[in-house]
Amino acid sequence: MAVHEFISLIISCLVMGFVFLQWHQFKRIQNFSLLFLCFVFVFAASAFSVFEHFYLYPSLNFLQHFASALSGILLAIWCRLVYVDTKKDTPGQ
Amino acid sequence: MNFVTVFELVGLAGAIFAFGYFWVGTRRAFIRNIRIALGILLAVSLSKYLVNSLEWSGLISHPGLAPSENYLDAIWPIAWFFFFLVFLMDTGEQDLRTNRERYQMILNSSRDAIFIMDGNTNILDLNQAAVSLTGYYAQELKNMAMTRFTEHFDLNTYRHYFNHKNDGFSYTNEIRMRCADGKHLEAECCNTLGSINGRKLMCTVARDITERRHTENLLAAEKERLDTTLYSIGDGIITTDIEERVTLINRVAENLTGWSQDAARGRYLSEVFQVIEASSREPCENPVAKVIENNAITTLGDQTVLISKNGLEYTISDSGAPIIDRNGRTIGVVLVFRDITTSQKSREEMLKIEKLESLGVLAGGIAHDFNNLLTSMLGNVSLLKIETQPEEKTHKRLDEIEKAAQRATDLTQQLLTFSKGGKPIKTLTNLRELISESATFSLRGSNVKCEFHLDPSLKAAEVDAGQIGQAISNIVINADQAMPEGGRIRILARNIEIKANNEMILEPGNYIQITIQDTGPGVEIEKLKKLFDPYFTTKQKGSGLGLSVALSIIEKHNGKITVDSKPGRGTSFFIYLPASEKSPDKPEETDGKIYTGRGRILVMDDEDFIRDISIHMISEMGFEVETAKDGEEAISLYRQAMEAGRPFDAVIMDLTIPGGMGGKEAIKELTAIDKNVKAIVSSGYSNDPVMADFQLYGFKGAIKKPYMMQEMSEALEILFRKER
């Protein structure tokens, strides 16, 4: 197991906790559920990258990269929704 | 190519698209700091996918490290964290800024001045309206205590509330502000206690009420003026709403209705303003309904009686008018009414007096004409008596006729007395005779016995015998009527001396007290006070005028009349008349025989039969008689006689000639012709001033009609004897 994978998981966990703690503030971000889902896949990829070293390596490795790929796609979708599809101003502007 | 490379390439594609959208997008989605953080996140994501794709595809490699061992995987969640953190920080700051702007907007949007103050009234914050209101700059006001630009600020109350009350507590007060330009203004303040960051503060919202207070003062003054006017008006005023409930009642209306303003307000008009028709005593038509129906000023009735709360009745004249608001709607009714009870009574009394005056004129005229007729009758009787012997039957019959005519003369004298009014014509009179004659005459035919106790040394008085006789007569008649079953009247007369400061408020001096006592039922003390009031009577038979006329007559003679009575013990009237120290002139004595003489006498009278009887009577005395029917003819004859050298020795002239010159005017002409003219005035109006003071008018004697042979003889004898 690489150290950076473990560090990545810990940071992802902290970010996840931070998001949950300030959930009501982050809900002001437009299409936050989609962005959050995107981060969930980031978190999942980090988790799978750590756990693949202990059991079910092939499957978890597959899932790690799959989650990573999905997060990239979701990020693209979210950016499109925020910057292209909607002309609405988001809170905080 | 393994699946890892594929997935990384897919992720790379996603990251490229995401970055592309971010780059070419509006860039307006977030504020600058967040956009930077998002850009970093996207850049890290792009780098991570790119590096991973290249490594897993074998295009690049790091010596000694597996493809999964690059640290970009660890940086990726850090980038996410950074994005979230920046977002959170920037939105918090933005919120704070938004809230502050919102606060300022709210503060400045108020048209009332807002001051945020501490416990010492130091101003910590304020709005634009506060600046406008006070005229100070905002910076000047900040940290200035409100007490510095206000007068009589109640700091103790402020501090009491500030220190002892909780957040949200609110109270209002009024302050007087001194503006920067020296002007003063009144402000109404709503003070609300609150706290910011745990610091207690007072938020004062001040509104300029100077104009409003001025208007209120003007309105109050106007209302007070109107109220005072309404209350001072001499007529009763009641206003109601359209539901007939009383809204206002002025002082006169309070007195007339017996309802006070407070008690009457809100009650139905019918309860407060009870009016009935005077004749039928039926309730009047509802005045409010009548006014609203007519929608104009309406007179409610001529003969309306208002019954007050305590049962008193007032005759009123009233009118009502609708109260119309600015929109033309009738919102109530105003009733104006006036107590006309007294004026009504006065009017009725005036009518009665006018009737009595007319009756008096009629009575006077009748008496005059009667006297003329009686003159003829008595004159002829006296002539016939001369022609007959006393023992003859005819002579006796003539005596009877003469007596009857004398009684008729007395009656005409009464008529003349009744007809008389105004100022008394005073002559020195022996009251003993007057009292006894008047009383006796008044009780003729009555079942009441009269006793006289008249002081033989009773002084004479300067009185109008006719009027005093009438006064005594009225009191005696009053006593007589009070005793229909019969009784006794005692009349006493004596001389008394009245001292100064007497109860009767009479001038000190010598008086004659005449007391008339009856044995009638007496009068209660309440009625005693009204006994001399016109038309007040306790008897069905009386008119209520007798005693008031008696009072009037006595007062005209500077005297006094009082009354004392107790129920069941009779009534006593006391008359006080100023006594005279003079004795009445004794009438010149004659020997009782018919006077005879020689000479020419001119008789002037409008009545043929008077002239005729005068010719006979005077001729019988030996005189030559000529007659004239009025003053002009008499003057003409007198002048002709003088010019012919055959002047008249005496002239007897009637006082009044209807439509012609009477004796009063003729004597002036005759005196001008002959200053030694000997004239006797003759009249049926024995109460005429000329008859009382004939000398003042140029006459040498007076003879009252009706006169007989004897009276004519006496008059001529006195006239000619004086000349000798």
Brief overview:
Chain A is mostly helical and 93 residues long. Chain A is 77% helix and 0% strand. Chain A has helices at residues 3-21, 23-26, 32-51, 57-85.
Please describe what this structure looks like:
Chain A is mainly alpha-helical. Chain A is built from four helices and no strands. Chain A has one domain. Helix content of chain A is 77%, strand content 0%. The longest helix of chain A is centred in the last third of the chain and has 29 residues. In chain B, helix 21 links the parallel strand 23 and strand 24. In chain B, helix 1 runs antiparallel to helix 2. The longest helix of chain B is centred in the middle third of the chain and has 47 residues. Chain B is rod-shaped. At the A-B interface, helix 1, helix 3 and helix 4 of A face helix 1, helix 2 and helix 3 of B.
Q: What can be said about the biggest beta sheet of chain B?
A: 6 strands, antiparallel
Estimated helix fraction of chain B = 40-55%
| Number of helical elements of chain A | 4
Structure classification of chain A: mainly alpha
Could you describe the largest sheet of chain A, including whether it forms a barrel? Answer: none
